[in-house]
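Protein modeling request. Please complete all fields; requests missing the sequence field cannot be processed.
Requester role: graduate student
Desired output: 3D structure, token encoding
Chains: 1
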Amino acid sequence: MANRIDVKLQALKEAGETAIVPFMTIGFPDLHTSEALVEVIADSGGDIVELGIPFSDPLADGATVQKTSFQALKQGVNVSMSLGVLRRLRDRGVNAPFIFMGYYNPFLQYGVERFLQDGAEAGLDGVIVPDLPPEEAGPFKILCDQSGIHLIPMLAPTSTDQRIAKACNGARGFIYCVSLTGVTGARRDLASGLPGLVARIRRHTDLPVIVGFGVSRREHVETIGRFADGAVVASALLDAIDDSPKERVLQTTREFLEGLRKQGG
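Delivered output (265 residues):
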């Protein structure tokens, strides 16, 4: 069976649309609500949904994602519970492509082979591991490929052409382009060198390139769509959820995502 990520990105390419990839921390503000939020995200314009696995030391993440991860950890949310969320969403017929974004240690503690086997059975399509560099990812990538789960490589403004070539070699799904040197977090403006970085990456791969870190507004998505294939929206969405009254979080999420797609206003 074709990977949902590939199917969705091909359909968006044919339609001339920019992929919107919302990020949601599993367990924020609590496990039940996060599960409901993911369903709303998938139903409100989230083309691919990135699910954050809580971790005690999320080195690539800024204050917002750290805060949501800490809140989830206080409630005991772990890899096993995250897989449970995924299973229940699939059982309810949610067919969006799902990617786990998590650090290597929780997967290692769970058991890498077991994690990928359980992930495949639960309906996981991809995984992003920020602290697993290409030089050390070989064994994990082989297991991912065997499970039908795409290991999504991350590249940054500091990536050399040699590193870009290495990360793109044999990559699947798409290339995650980190837009800036730093951690995640909503920002007012996109980095000026972003089109050049995406162009450098495209010289080494035919895969779609999706931009993350600092994307917060519809204007950002529109700008990114001129030179890349999609945009990840994380901190801005989580901030909107955090600022929303409890009884309105689902509606707030729906309105935020619809606003990312809204044209001319």
